[in-house]
Amino acid sequence: MTTPATAQKIDALADVRAGDKGDTLIVAVLARDDAAYRHLALRLTEDVVAAHYGALITGPARRTCQPNLMAMVFELPGVLGGGVTGSPALDGHGKTLSYHLLSLEI
Q1: Dihedral over Cα of 9, 28, 25, 99: its sign
Q2: CA distance 83 to 43
Q3: Cβ neighbour number for residue 52 with a 10 Å cutoff
Q4: pLDDT digits (tens, 9 = 90+) for 22-72
Q5: What is the pLDDT of residue 47?
Q6: What does the domain layout of the chain look like in residue ranges?
Q7: Which residues form the AtuA-like ferredoxin-fold domain (predicted)?
Q8: Exposed/middle/buried for 87, CB within 10 Å: 0-12, 13-18, 19+?
Q9: What is the rounded CA–CA span in Å between residue 45 and residue 40?
Q10: Positive or negative, the Cα torsion across 39, 40, 44, 45?
Q11: C-alpha angle with apex 65: 63 to 66, nearest 5 degrees?
Q12: Whole-angstrom distance, CA of residue 23 vs CA of residue 97
């Protein structure tokens, strides 16, 4: 895959998986190939992801890169609004919220 100069959605470059720990959404971004991983590693920063989730985040986002897996993991505190048992939201595990990241253009 070549990385075009124009912006493209994360969905064209990667897949996501979600997890949760309390009210923290944990999103793994799994690049489809090495070129996509390099592009994502440069452009998909903590600040970009935090801005995409906006007011849902209650603390600093954290990114952990796993280049051997062509993946990165984001921890997004507060996004689950209390977590699985404490949130009135229908998406307590954050599965739908993780797919929201795929709509981000970088």
Answers
A1: positive
A2: 29
A3: 19
A4: 889 999 999 999 999 999 999 999 999 999 999 999 999 999 999 999 999
A5: 97
A6: 10-82+98-103
A7: 10-106
A8: middle
A9: 8
A10: negative
A11: 145
A12: 12
The Cα–Cα gap between 80 and 93 comes to 7
User: In Å, what is the CA distance from 24 to each residue of 13, 52, 60, 74?
Assistant: 24, 15, 11, 10
| Alpha-carbon span 70 to 63, nearest angstrom | 13
* 10-82+98-103 has CATH 3.30.70 classification: yes
Distances (CA, A) of 17 to 4, 23, 72: 25, 16, 11
Three-class secondary structure of residue 15 per DSSP: strand
